[in-house]
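Researcher: Next sequence.
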Amino acid sequence: MIKQTNEKTGGGRTLLSIALAAVFVVAAFAIITADDSSTNSSADEGAYLGAATYSVPSATYPSLDVLPALTAGDTITLTDNVTCTTSFVVDKDNVTLNLAGFTLTFTGSDYKAVVVRGVDGKLTINGGGSSTIAAMGDEMCAVYAYDDAVVNITANITVGNYGTGIYAEDDANVTFKGNIECGDDSDGIDAWNDSVISIKGNIECGDGSNGIYAYGKAKVTVTGNIECGDGSNGISALGDSVITIKGDITVNDLTSEYSRGISAGDTAKVTVTGNITVTGECSRGVDVWDKTVVTIKGNVTVTGTDSWGIYFGQEAQITMTGKLTVSGTDSEYAVLWYFDVGDKHVYFDIEDGVKSGSWLVYADEASPDAFFKIRESDGGGLDTMMILLIAVVALVVIAAAAFFFLKK
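Model: Next structure:
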């Protein structure tokens, strides 16, 4: 059931009990008669929350209309698992949904489970532990925020096939602490149009999915790992989006093909501090074009027939400080694609890098604005730390020899 707290109700528990009883009768009648119309709901977005609270027993409900509208600052606390078949909509300030370790499951044909909207839409979802929002209908989004809405979540999210864990657009701001698990053909994160999403936790998606999809001026930061199945993209970034991953990206493509660790275009900026590992036929560790800028501080490992480690074109720029490893029949270390002159490619082996300071640069004079550069240590040279270590050891040996000589 759902346990509610509301300091504004004061001592009116008797009246509240009477109201509860009346609402239960109305709710039961609505379920029995299968009437699709419901109080405080819209045809496209289900039940609204916005002005008083009370308890409902654990069960399957056609909607959360059994709750009257909440006022700003109210809290709903689950005391058991609850299942709903329409959306749960918040458009009031500082509403709290305490899952208390239970699961709030959404099924049915509504595409959005929890909806937070408008400048006054501010929702906190907490409960910690095993608390979960489960959007199990196909093509369902677990949390949808838009129009300056603010959402803070400390819980886990589970969605079915063709679903989305968190979708934010139009200046929405979402902070999430927990793990996201998606089915096949799903997006862990969808970020659009100036939205900001911050994740502390891991994202796991099935086959044919995007760990993160970002467009416009969206900003996404993930402190955690991304893992996707066959035929997936760890990251898909377009527009002026900015994505930062403080963890690893893994795409395990075991039965299909065309997986990507990073896929990006337009003027997107992507930074990954961990490692990128992609397995599968015709896969790419990094696949970027237009004026995309990518920075990778870890290693990139690509394994599979006809696979390429780095694939870049136009004015895309890629900088790596880790190691690039590519293996598999007919695979390539790095490939530059000329978009504007037909299907022309320039293939680079590891030894084709041109030394520039401590970097090896892979580029072509016909396309000077596009480049891939990597620390020289990956091309067989010594990196800065190794050189420094050798210098220190040499100095110690010389000092010891001098001391021994002077002592004699």
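Model: The first helix runs from residue 13 to 33. Residues 1-134 form one domain.
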